[in-house]
Amino acid sequence: MRVVPAIAAVAIALCLLPSPGEAAMPADVARKAPPLNFAPGPQFADGVRRFQGIPGIERAPGGRLWATWYGGGNGEDRHNYILLVTSADDGASWSKLKLIIDPDGPGPCRAFDPCLWLDPRGRLWLFWAQRHRDVHLWAIRTENPDADTPDWTEPRHIARGIMMNKPTVLSSGEWLLPVALWGTQTSARVVCSTDAGATWKARGAATIPEKAHRNCDEHMLVERRDGSVWMLVRTNYGIGESRSTDRGATWSPVAPSPIRHTTSRFFIRRLRSGKLLLVKHGALATRAGRSHLTAFLSDDDGATWTSGLLLDERGGVSYPDGVQAPDGTIYLIYDYQRTGAKQILMATFTEADLAAARPTSPKARLRVLVNQATGRKR
Protein backbone atom coordinates (compact mmCIF):
# COMPACT_ATOMS: atom_id res chain seq x y z
CA MET A 1 0.00 0.00 0.00
CA ARG A 2 1.36 3.43 -0.95
CA VAL A 3 1.66 5.77 2.03
CA VAL A 4 1.15 9.43 1.15
CA PRO A 5 3.12 12.04 3.15
CA ALA A 6 0.09 13.26 5.13
CA ILE A 7 -0.80 9.75 6.28
CA ALA A 8 2.83 8.96 7.09
CA ALA A 9 3.11 12.15 9.16
CA VAL A 10 0.05 11.13 11.16
CA ALA A 11 1.52 7.66 11.69
CA ILE A 12 4.75 9.13 13.04
CA ALA A 13 2.81 11.51 15.28
CA LEU A 14 0.78 8.63 16.68
CA CYS A 15 3.97 6.70 17.44
CA LEU A 16 5.24 9.63 19.48
CA LEU A 17 2.01 10.45 21.35
CA PRO A 18 1.80 9.53 25.05
CA SER A 19 0.02 6.25 25.74
CA PRO A 20 -3.13 6.10 27.89
CA GLY A 21 -2.31 6.43 31.56
CA GLU A 22 1.12 7.97 31.00
CA ALA A 23 0.38 11.00 33.16
CA ALA A 24 0.46 8.80 36.26
CA MET A 25 3.78 7.15 35.33
CA PRO A 26 7.37 8.38 35.70
CA ALA A 27 8.66 10.34 32.72
CA ASP A 28 11.55 7.98 32.02
CA VAL A 29 10.02 4.47 31.97
CA ALA A 30 11.69 3.76 28.61
CA ARG A 31 15.02 4.80 30.16
CA LYS A 32 14.71 2.06 32.79
CA ALA A 33 16.36 -1.33 32.21
CA PRO A 34 13.69 -4.00 31.53
CA PRO A 35 13.62 -7.51 33.03
CA LEU A 36 14.91 -10.42 30.93
CA ASN A 37 12.37 -13.25 30.93
CA PHE A 38 14.07 -16.56 30.09
CA ALA A 39 11.04 -18.65 31.10
CA PRO A 40 8.09 -17.08 29.22
CA GLY A 41 4.66 -18.00 30.57
CA PRO A 42 1.48 -18.84 28.64
CA GLN A 43 0.62 -15.17 28.20
CA PHE A 44 3.37 -15.06 25.52
CA ALA A 45 2.37 -18.27 23.70
CA ASP A 46 1.98 -18.42 19.91
CA GLY A 47 -1.75 -18.99 20.35
CA VAL A 48 -2.15 -15.72 22.24
CA ARG A 49 -0.28 -13.24 20.06
CA ARG A 50 -2.58 -11.26 17.76
CA PHE A 51 0.22 -9.30 16.07
CA GLN A 52 3.86 -9.97 15.21
CA GLY A 53 6.49 -8.92 12.69
CA ILE A 54 9.59 -6.79 12.05
CA PRO A 55 12.17 -9.61 12.37
CA GLY A 56 15.96 -9.87 12.50
CA ILE A 57 18.37 -12.79 12.03
CA GLU A 58 21.97 -13.71 12.84
CA ARG A 59 24.25 -16.73 12.67
CA ALA A 60 26.69 -17.71 15.41
CA PRO A 61 30.26 -18.73 14.43
CA GLY A 62 29.43 -22.42 14.88
CA GLY A 63 26.27 -22.25 12.77
CA ARG A 64 23.49 -21.71 15.31
CA LEU A 65 20.81 -19.37 13.96
CA TRP A 66 19.04 -16.74 16.05
CA ALA A 67 15.84 -14.91 15.11
CA THR A 68 14.04 -12.03 16.79
CA TRP A 69 10.92 -9.96 16.18
CA TYR A 70 8.31 -8.17 18.24
CA GLY A 71 4.67 -8.97 18.93
CA GLY A 72 1.82 -8.66 21.38
CA GLY A 73 -1.18 -6.33 21.32
CA ASN A 74 -3.44 -5.69 18.34
CA GLY A 75 -0.74 -3.92 16.35
CA GLU A 76 2.05 -1.46 17.00
CA ASP A 77 1.02 -0.45 20.51
CA ARG A 78 2.08 -0.28 24.16
CA HIS A 79 1.60 -4.05 24.61
CA ASN A 80 4.51 -4.90 22.26
CA TYR A 81 7.42 -7.01 23.49
CA ILE A 82 10.58 -8.59 22.02
CA LEU A 83 10.83 -12.33 21.21
CA LEU A 84 13.92 -14.47 20.61
CA VAL A 85 14.22 -18.04 19.23
CA THR A 86 17.07 -20.20 17.95
CA SER A 87 17.78 -23.08 15.54
CA ALA A 88 20.55 -25.67 15.81
CA ASP A 89 19.74 -27.39 12.49
CA ASP A 90 20.19 -24.59 9.97
CA GLY A 91 16.61 -23.42 10.25
CA ALA A 92 14.88 -26.77 9.68
CA SER A 93 13.28 -26.39 13.12
CA TRP A 94 13.11 -23.59 15.64
CA SER A 95 13.00 -23.54 19.42
CA LYS A 96 10.27 -22.39 21.70
CA LEU A 97 10.67 -18.84 23.00
CA LYS A 98 14.10 -18.40 24.56
CA LEU A 99 13.64 -14.84 25.77
CA ILE A 100 10.95 -12.22 26.18
CA ILE A 101 11.72 -8.55 26.83
CA ASP A 102 8.57 -6.87 28.08
CA PRO A 103 9.41 -3.67 30.00
CA ASP A 104 6.19 -3.32 31.98
CA GLY A 105 3.53 -5.80 30.83
CA PRO A 106 0.37 -3.92 29.85
CA GLY A 107 1.93 -0.63 30.93
CA PRO A 108 2.67 2.38 28.74
CA CYS A 109 6.21 1.35 27.69
CA ARG A 110 6.50 -0.70 24.52
CA ALA A 111 9.52 -2.70 23.32
CA PHE A 112 9.94 -2.90 19.54
CA ASP A 113 12.25 -2.85 16.48
CA PRO A 114 14.79 -5.52 17.56
CA CYS A 115 18.05 -6.23 15.72
CA LEU A 116 20.56 -9.08 16.00
CA TRP A 117 24.22 -8.56 15.13
CA LEU A 118 27.35 -10.73 15.41
CA ASP A 119 30.31 -8.43 16.02
CA PRO A 120 33.88 -9.04 14.74
CA ARG A 121 34.80 -10.71 18.05
CA GLY A 122 32.06 -13.33 17.64
CA ARG A 123 29.76 -11.82 20.27
CA LEU A 124 26.04 -11.71 19.57
CA TRP A 125 24.19 -8.46 20.27
CA LEU A 126 20.46 -7.97 20.60
CA PHE A 127 19.37 -4.33 20.21
CA TRP A 128 15.82 -3.02 20.70
CA ALA A 129 13.95 0.22 21.29
CA GLN A 130 11.72 1.20 24.21
CA ARG A 131 9.20 4.03 24.02
CA HIS A 132 7.25 5.84 26.69
CA ARG A 133 7.57 9.63 26.73
CA ASP A 134 10.76 9.34 24.71
CA VAL A 135 12.50 6.60 22.73
CA HIS A 136 15.65 4.82 23.91
CA LEU A 137 17.92 2.19 22.41
CA TRP A 138 18.97 -0.78 24.57
CA ALA A 139 21.20 -3.83 24.06
CA ILE A 140 22.29 -7.10 25.61
CA ARG A 141 25.21 -9.26 24.48
CA THR A 142 26.44 -12.84 24.80
CA GLU A 143 29.95 -14.27 24.49
CA ASN A 144 28.70 -17.80 23.68
CA PRO A 145 26.07 -17.52 20.93
CA ASP A 146 26.50 -21.14 19.85
CA ALA A 147 25.08 -22.34 23.17
CA ASP A 148 21.44 -23.38 23.32
CA THR A 149 20.96 -21.19 26.40
CA PRO A 150 23.77 -18.63 26.35
CA ASP A 151 24.63 -16.22 29.13
CA TRP A 152 23.51 -12.65 28.41
CA THR A 153 24.72 -9.39 29.88
CA GLU A 154 22.39 -7.09 31.75
CA PRO A 155 20.45 -4.61 29.54
CA ARG A 156 22.53 -1.58 28.68
CA HIS A 157 21.36 1.82 27.47
CA ILE A 158 23.07 2.74 24.19
CA ALA A 159 21.52 6.01 22.98
CA ARG A 160 18.38 8.03 22.59
CA GLY A 161 16.47 6.97 19.48
CA ILE A 162 15.53 3.88 17.46
CA MET A 163 17.85 1.43 15.71
CA MET A 164 16.66 -1.63 13.80
CA ASN A 165 19.43 -2.31 11.30
CA LYS A 166 22.82 -3.92 11.77
CA PRO A 167 25.91 -1.82 12.55
CA THR A 168 28.60 -1.41 9.91
CA VAL A 169 32.29 -2.00 10.67
CA LEU A 170 34.49 0.42 8.72
CA SER A 171 37.94 -0.43 7.34
CA SER A 172 39.27 1.86 10.11
CA GLY A 173 37.84 -0.54 12.69
CA GLU A 174 35.13 1.88 13.86
CA TRP A 175 31.59 0.60 14.37
CA LEU A 176 28.81 2.77 12.97
CA LEU A 177 25.31 2.29 14.36
CA PRO A 178 22.30 3.85 12.57
CA VAL A 179 20.00 5.47 15.18
CA ALA A 180 16.90 7.49 14.24
CA LEU A 181 14.83 10.24 15.82
CA TRP A 182 11.72 9.99 13.68
CA GLY A 183 10.34 13.07 11.97
CA THR A 184 13.19 15.46 12.79
CA GLN A 185 15.32 17.20 10.19
CA THR A 186 18.52 15.38 11.18
CA SER A 187 16.79 12.17 12.21
CA ALA A 188 19.09 9.77 10.31
CA ARG A 189 21.82 9.78 12.93
CA VAL A 190 24.98 7.72 13.30
CA VAL A 191 26.39 6.59 16.64
CA CYS A 192 29.99 5.34 16.69
CA SER A 193 32.10 3.02 18.82
CA THR A 194 35.90 3.11 18.60
CA ASP A 195 36.43 0.56 21.38
CA ALA A 196 34.54 -2.55 20.18
CA GLY A 197 31.24 -1.54 21.72
CA ALA A 198 32.48 -0.54 25.19
CA THR A 199 31.24 3.02 24.58
CA TRP A 200 29.06 4.68 21.94
CA LYS A 201 29.10 8.35 20.96
CA ALA A 202 27.14 10.44 18.46
CA ARG A 203 29.16 10.84 15.26
CA GLY A 204 26.92 12.72 12.79
CA ALA A 205 23.52 12.89 11.12
CA ALA A 206 22.11 13.25 7.62
CA THR A 207 19.59 16.02 6.97
CA ILE A 208 16.27 15.26 5.31
CA PRO A 209 15.47 18.77 4.01
CA GLU A 210 11.74 18.54 3.33
CA LYS A 211 9.44 17.82 6.27
CA ALA A 212 6.96 16.09 3.95
CA HIS A 213 9.65 13.57 2.97
CA ARG A 214 10.51 12.44 6.52
CA ASN A 215 9.36 9.02 7.61
CA CYS A 216 10.80 6.33 9.91
CA ASP A 217 14.33 6.50 8.38
CA GLU A 218 15.34 2.85 9.01
CA HIS A 219 18.64 3.88 7.41
CA MET A 220 21.41 1.47 6.46
CA LEU A 221 25.11 2.08 5.94
CA VAL A 222 27.63 0.63 3.47
CA GLU A 223 31.31 1.55 3.21
CA ARG A 224 32.19 1.87 -0.46
CA ARG A 225 35.48 0.86 -2.03
CA ASP A 226 36.60 4.50 -2.26
CA GLY A 227 36.31 4.82 1.53
CA SER A 228 33.09 6.86 1.54
CA VAL A 229 30.04 5.71 3.49
CA TRP A 230 26.77 5.37 1.60
CA MET A 231 23.55 5.81 3.56
CA LEU A 232 20.18 4.69 2.26
CA VAL A 233 17.12 6.07 4.08
CA ARG A 234 13.42 5.18 4.09
CA THR A 235 11.46 8.28 3.07
CA ASN A 236 7.94 9.09 1.95
CA TYR A 237 9.08 9.03 -1.68
CA GLY A 238 10.85 5.68 -1.27
CA ILE A 239 14.62 5.49 -0.71
CA GLY A 240 16.76 8.56 -0.13
CA GLU A 241 20.55 8.52 -0.15
CA SER A 242 23.39 10.44 1.49
CA ARG A 243 27.19 10.22 1.40
CA SER A 244 29.93 10.82 3.96
CA THR A 245 33.63 11.15 3.19
CA ASP A 246 34.76 11.54 6.82
CA ARG A 247 33.57 8.24 8.33
CA GLY A 248 30.11 9.47 9.23
CA ALA A 249 30.86 12.84 10.81
CA THR A 250 29.23 14.91 8.05
CA TRP A 251 26.73 13.91 5.37
CA SER A 252 25.35 15.28 2.14
CA PRO A 253 21.63 16.22 2.28
CA VAL A 254 19.37 13.22 1.75
CA ALA A 255 18.15 13.17 -1.86
CA PRO A 256 16.11 10.65 -3.90
CA SER A 257 18.01 7.49 -4.83
CA PRO A 258 17.76 5.93 -8.31
CA ILE A 259 16.47 2.82 -6.53
CA ARG A 260 12.69 3.17 -6.52
CA HIS A 261 10.78 1.69 -3.60
CA THR A 262 7.64 1.84 -1.54
CA THR A 263 7.65 3.45 1.91
CA SER A 264 8.94 0.41 3.76
CA ARG A 265 12.08 -1.19 5.08
CA PHE A 266 14.63 -2.59 2.61
CA PHE A 267 17.94 -4.40 3.24
CA ILE A 268 21.46 -3.75 1.93
CA ARG A 269 24.71 -5.40 3.02
CA ARG A 270 28.17 -6.10 1.66
CA LEU A 271 28.80 -9.81 1.09
CA ARG A 272 32.03 -11.71 1.73
CA SER A 273 32.83 -11.56 -2.00
CA GLY A 274 32.78 -7.77 -1.88
CA LYS A 275 29.54 -7.55 -3.83
CA LEU A 276 26.47 -5.77 -2.46
CA LEU A 277 23.19 -7.51 -1.65
CA LEU A 278 19.97 -5.48 -1.90
CA VAL A 279 16.53 -6.79 -0.96
CA LYS A 280 13.52 -4.65 -1.84
CA HIS A 281 9.96 -4.83 -3.13
CA GLY A 282 9.63 -5.26 -6.88
CA ALA A 283 11.99 -4.42 -9.73
CA LEU A 284 14.69 -1.78 -9.32
CA ALA A 285 12.81 0.81 -11.35
CA THR A 286 9.43 -0.01 -9.80
CA ARG A 287 7.72 1.47 -6.76
CA ALA A 288 5.78 -1.68 -5.87
CA GLY A 289 3.69 -2.19 -2.74
CA ARG A 290 4.67 -4.56 0.04
CA SER A 291 4.85 -7.57 -2.27
CA HIS A 292 7.35 -9.23 -4.64
CA LEU A 293 10.24 -9.30 -2.18
CA THR A 294 13.28 -9.54 -4.48
CA ALA A 295 17.05 -9.85 -3.96
CA PHE A 296 19.62 -8.16 -6.21
CA LEU A 297 23.42 -8.32 -6.52
CA SER A 298 25.87 -5.56 -7.47
CA ASP A 299 29.58 -5.84 -8.29
CA ASP A 300 30.16 -2.08 -8.75
CA ASP A 301 29.09 -0.56 -5.41
CA GLY A 302 25.47 -0.16 -6.45
CA ALA A 303 25.91 1.44 -9.87
CA THR A 304 24.27 -1.56 -11.54
CA TRP A 305 22.39 -4.61 -10.28
CA THR A 306 21.44 -8.10 -11.46
CA SER A 307 17.90 -8.74 -12.68
CA GLY A 308 16.77 -10.03 -9.29
CA LEU A 309 15.79 -13.24 -7.49
CA LEU A 310 12.11 -13.27 -6.49
CA LEU A 311 11.78 -14.56 -2.91
CA ASP A 312 8.07 -14.09 -2.19
CA GLU A 313 5.53 -12.50 -4.53
CA ARG A 314 2.59 -12.32 -2.10
CA GLY A 315 1.12 -9.12 -0.76
CA GLY A 316 1.84 -8.51 2.91
CA VAL A 317 5.51 -9.54 2.92
CA SER A 318 7.87 -6.98 4.41
CA TYR A 319 10.87 -5.98 6.51
CA PRO A 320 13.79 -8.12 5.30
CA ASP A 321 16.97 -8.63 7.33
CA GLY A 322 19.83 -10.94 6.47
CA VAL A 323 23.23 -12.46 7.19
CA GLN A 324 25.76 -14.50 5.20
CA ALA A 325 27.50 -17.67 6.43
CA PRO A 326 31.20 -18.39 5.74
CA ASP A 327 30.19 -20.95 3.08
CA GLY A 328 28.37 -18.20 1.16
CA THR A 329 24.80 -19.10 2.13
CA ILE A 330 22.64 -16.02 2.62
CA TYR A 331 19.88 -16.18 5.26
CA LEU A 332 17.03 -13.71 4.77
CA ILE A 333 14.19 -13.26 7.28
CA TYR A 334 10.94 -11.30 6.78
CA ASP A 335 7.33 -11.16 7.97
CA TYR A 336 4.04 -12.02 6.28
CA GLN A 337 0.65 -10.57 7.26
CA ARG A 338 1.39 -9.20 10.72
CA THR A 339 -2.23 -9.44 11.89
CA GLY A 340 -3.41 -12.14 9.46
CA ALA A 341 -1.18 -15.19 8.94
CA LYS A 342 1.29 -13.67 11.45
CA GLN A 343 4.23 -15.59 10.00
CA ILE A 344 7.96 -15.05 10.37
CA LEU A 345 9.62 -16.61 7.31
CA MET A 346 13.16 -17.33 6.12
CA ALA A 347 14.72 -17.78 2.69
CA THR A 348 18.22 -19.08 1.96
CA PHE A 349 20.14 -18.65 -1.28
CA THR A 350 23.61 -18.02 -2.73
CA GLU A 351 25.29 -15.58 -5.09
CA ALA A 352 24.88 -18.21 -7.83
CA ASP A 353 21.11 -18.09 -7.31
CA LEU A 354 21.21 -14.29 -7.47
CA ALA A 355 23.28 -14.34 -10.68
CA ALA A 356 20.88 -16.84 -12.28
CA ALA A 357 17.83 -14.90 -11.02
CA ARG A 358 16.26 -18.19 -9.93
CA PRO A 359 16.88 -20.86 -7.28
CA THR A 360 19.51 -23.19 -8.74
CA SER A 361 21.77 -24.19 -5.84
CA PRO A 362 21.09 -26.91 -3.24
CA LYS A 363 21.25 -24.15 -0.61
CA ALA A 364 18.15 -22.42 -1.98
CA ARG A 365 15.04 -22.63 0.22
CA LEU A 366 12.02 -20.35 0.11
CA ARG A 367 9.24 -19.62 2.64
CA VAL A 368 10.81 -21.55 5.53
CA LEU A 369 8.55 -21.06 8.56
CA VAL A 370 10.33 -19.70 11.62
CA ASN A 371 7.23 -18.93 13.70
CA GLN A 372 3.50 -18.41 13.35
CA ALA A 373 1.18 -16.79 15.87
CA THR A 374 -2.48 -17.76 15.89
CA GLY A 375 -4.08 -15.40 18.39
CA ARG A 376 -7.28 -13.70 17.28
CA LYS A 377 -7.59 -9.95 17.23
CA ARG A 378 -9.85 -8.52 19.91
How far apart lie the N and C ends? Answer: 24 Å
Total of DSSP H or I helical runs spanning 4+ residues: 2
Q: How many beta-strand runs?
A: 24
| Major sheet description | 4 strands, antiparallel
Query: How many separate structural domains?
Result: 1
Please tell me the CATH architecture by its name: 6 Propeller
Query: What is the rounded Rg?
Result: 19 Å
User: Mean pLDDT, nearest integer?
Assistant: 93
* Strand order in the largest sheet: 1-2-3-4
Helix content: under 10%
* Oligomeric state of this protein: single chain
Indicate the structural class.
Answer: mainly beta
Describe the protein's architecture and organization.
With 378 residues, the protein is mostly beta strands. It has one domain (5-18, 40-372): Neuraminidase, CATH 2.120.10.10. It contains two helices and 24 strands. Mean pLDDT is 93; it is low at 1-25.
Keywords for this structure?
single chain; mainly beta; four-stranded antiparallel sheet; 39% strand; disordered N terminus; Neuraminidase; 378 residues
Topology:
Blueprint: H1 5-16, E1 52-59, E2 65-71, E3 81-87, E4 99-101, E5 110-118, E6 124-131, E7 135-142, E8 156-160, E9 168-169, E10 175-180, E11 188-193, E12 201-206, E13 217-223, E14 229-235, E15 238-244, E16 255-256, E17 267-270, E18 276-281, E19 293-298, E20 309-312, E21 317-324, E22 330-336, E23 343-349, H2 351-356, E24 365-372
Antiparallel strand pairs: 1-2, 2-3, 3-4, 5-6, 6-7, 7-8, 9-10, 10-11, 11-12, 13-14, 14-15, 15-16, 17-18, 18-19, 19-20, 21-22, 22-23, 23-24
